[in-house]
Amino acid sequence: MEYRPLGGTGLRVSGLCLGTMNWRWTTSEAMSYRVMDAFIAGGGNFLDSADIYSFWAKGCEGGSSEAIIGQWMHRRRNRRDIVLATKVRGRMWPGATGEGLSRAHIIKACEDSLRRLRTDWIDLYQTHFADDSVPVDETMAALGDLVRSGKVRYVGCSNYTPGQLAEALVCARQLGLPQYISIQPFYNLFARDFEKDHVWLVKKYGVGVIPYSPLMGGFLTGKYRRDKPAPKSLRAVGLKWLMNDRGYKVIEALERMGRPRGKTVLQMALGWHLTHDWMTAPIIGANTPEQLHEALGGAGLRLSDDEMKELEGLTS
User: Is-above-0.70 flag for pTM?
Assistant: First the structure.
């Protein structure tokens, strides 16, 4: 596993980040512990969560993922070995302050996350989505207060448009507040809008990039093939738009490129991410240690200029 600085900071994170949205949703608590253990054993140190994970799952409520991580760190006594990221924005309690990026919501939500995570600090506290109903300076000032108090070490954002990111970065600089050091976008070979207007901005301001869904909901794992029937699942239904000549050509190219290296389609797709010089760490998910092991095989992988050009030609 390689380690990279997160944005323009001295914080070094593993080149793959473990996403935990599926804890207690598609992965039991006991299996979640096993996956996190395997991630650490494989050299990973970077975990990503959010306070709303996974309220949509049957029998779950917001905070379930954080609570599992907190219990795991408590049992393993490994808090100082972990770079811990979580997010704030979604609805977590009833009433006017129950969601959003107001000072009232951010301060209480952070305290709640700290309690569930059983820790005194969060390494990376991210605004999950922008909130246009709240002045940007109020949001950035509240985050700055959390940094000064020691409860948060760095701040980042997720799902921000270029305009929203630029406004927040300029605001923080003008007011002498901590700026966002990272952005978490939806980005993969089939979703490349981030390249159009974000990349120059993250380079200019030294913002790290930790994309979610780097495998396009599972399509880039290699289990969807031209000559095989699609799996019968809701996820497969959602990926139907990729099951065509264009989509299968990308899978076949990744397979061909990976064969001489002994790498899978999934690993080559992660390698495409890691080859970008502005990339920090794609966020991977896994329901079992076996699934995680395959993803870890993509750590440190780089593609050639010709391979990058071919893949981007197929998906432009």
Answer: yes
30 Cβ contact partners less than 8 Å away, ≥ 6 residues apart? none
Clarify whether 160 is annotated catalytic.
no
- 67-70's contacts with Cβ under 8 Å and 24+ in sequence apart are 67/116, 67/117, 68/20, 68/23, 68/24, 68/29, 68/32, 68/33, 69/20, 69/23, 69/36, 69/117, 70/116, 70/117, 70/118, 70/119
Cα dist from 139 to 128, 168, 201, whole Å: 12, 9, 20
Q: Measure the CA–CA gap between 287 and 72, rounded to whole angstroms.
A: 16
How far apart (Å, rounded) are the C-alpha atoms in residues 222 and 215? 10
Amino acid at residue number 50? A
Q: Provide the phi-psi class of 16: left if phi over 0, else alpha when psi is between -120 and 50, else beta.
A: beta
What's the Cα-to-Cα distance from 180 to each of 6, 78, 88, 168, rounded to whole Å? 11, 26, 14, 8
Assign 252 a pLDDT band (cuts: 50, 70, 90).
very high
Give the Cα separation of 266 and 299 in Å (integer).
11
Cα(105)–Cα(97) distance, integer angstroms: 5
Which residue out of 3, 33, 53, 125 is catalytically annotated? 53
DSSP designation for 303 = -
d(Cα 307, Cα 298) in Å, to the nearest integer?
16
User: Is the distance from CB of 29 to CB of 68 less than 8 angstroms?
Assistant: yes
Burial-class residue 269 by CB neighbours within 10 Å (0-12, 13-18, 19+). Answer: buried
C-alpha span between 253 and 127 (Å, rounded): 36
Q: Alpha helix (H) ranges present in the chain?
A: 29-41, 64-76, 103-117, 136-149, 162-175, 194-197, 199-205, 234-238, 245-258, 265-275, 289-296, 305-315
pLDDT digits (tens, 9 = 90+) for 125-148: 999 999 999 999 999 999 999 999
